[in-house]
Design a protein that fits this description.
By secondary structure, this protein is α/β, with parallel strands linked by helices. The chain has ten helices and nine strands. β2, α2 and β3 form a beta-alpha-beta unit.
């Protein structure tokens, strides 16, 4: 059985559209779990009214996408977990069937990264392409990757749980990066699948958004501290911190940059207490994936 997990926050109409697509899926046994992160709108009431067959979990306090995804994954009964952000639609009624077929065809693969398109169904959702190969020439190919987007993915549930789930300390942004690294570090693999298509309806992220000015510079530090050995962490962070500072100066949000640095500093003791650097073999493997390796 497939368990579909959807974190939701204040996107009633979007999540209702996604649920309509999911309950039109053909040829699969599934459950749908929505984890509402304290939405101020009437999302929960609307979902329960229009889709009573769905499971709706409501967080006691706002915890962010990582917390919501983890709660849904832990509640899931299926061997396969498919995750979507709430601002996605799935026009292909055989998508979940294709997910099962991909896992059957590749029994050693732990995760599937979906192809993400803009609402027109033709244009690539380039801001969410963080794969180690260029989008030009690879968007329509299957290849092993060190990344997946939380916007659309599928994993063997056991692999995600054993890898430690999403790192909740990050709240949002880069949580998929660390989970992908943990999957690879335990010997797993992630496959980009161009036939598994989800349409992403989000507006372009504002350059002054909280993600850009706060979570990105903060979580780059936390990711490096959590995953990378000493010199690798320094080499990763130095150019990024300088770049983020220069960007903050040019964009007029220096206060946000230093707020991010302060937050990272406050969280580092907790993170370092549980630090698990990736093995040398994993780092070498991640580097090799830049060659666009076929499954």
């Amino acid at each position: 059985m497939i368990s579909v997990v959807i974190p939701s926050y204040n996107r009633r109409d979007c999540v209702l559209a996604l649920l309509a697509d999911l309950y039109a899926q053909q040829g699969v046994e599934m459950e749908v779990i929505i984890v509402d992160d304290c939405s101020p709108d009437d999302s929960v009431e609307a979902i329960r009214r229009q889709f009573p067959q769905a499971t709706v979990l409501v967080n006691e306090k706002n915890g962010g996408p990582a917390v919501s995804r983890n709660r849904g994954i832990l509640a899931a009964r299926g061997d396969i977990v498919v995750g979507f952000d709430s601002d996605v639609t799935v026009p292909d009624r055989l998508l979940l069937s294709k997910v099962l077929q991909r896992f059957a065809d590749h029994p050693s693969v732990d995760g599937l990264a979906f192809r993400l398109l803009k609402p027109d169904g033709k244009s690539e959702d380039t801001p969410r392409w963080w794969h180690p190969v260029p989008i030009e020439g690879y968007a329509e190919k299957s290849f092993l990757t060190s990344y997946f987007s939380g916007t659309g993915y599928a994993f063997r549930r056991e692999a995600v749980v054993e890898a430690g789930l999403y790192p909740e300390i990050l709240y949002m942004h880069y949580e998929e990066v660390e989970l992908a690294f943990r999957i690879l570090d335990r010997g797993g693999s992630i496959l980009h699948c161009p036939e598994l298509v989800a349409l992403h309806h989000a507006n372009e992220v504002s350059r002054r958004s909280e993600v850009s000015v706060f979570y990105k510079p903060r979580n780059q530090i936390l990711l490096a501290a959590s995953c990378l050995p000493g010199l690798k962490a320094v080499g990763y962070l130095v150019p990024r911190v300088f770049y983020q500072f220069a960007k903050a100066c040019g964009g007029g949000h220096v206060k946000d940059f230093f707020r991010a640095m302060k937050s990272a500093s406050d969280l580092l003791p907790q993170l370092l207490a549980n630090r698990k650097p990736l093995s040398r073999g994993t780092l070498q493997r991640i580097g090799s994936l830049k060659q666009g390796l076929a499954p």
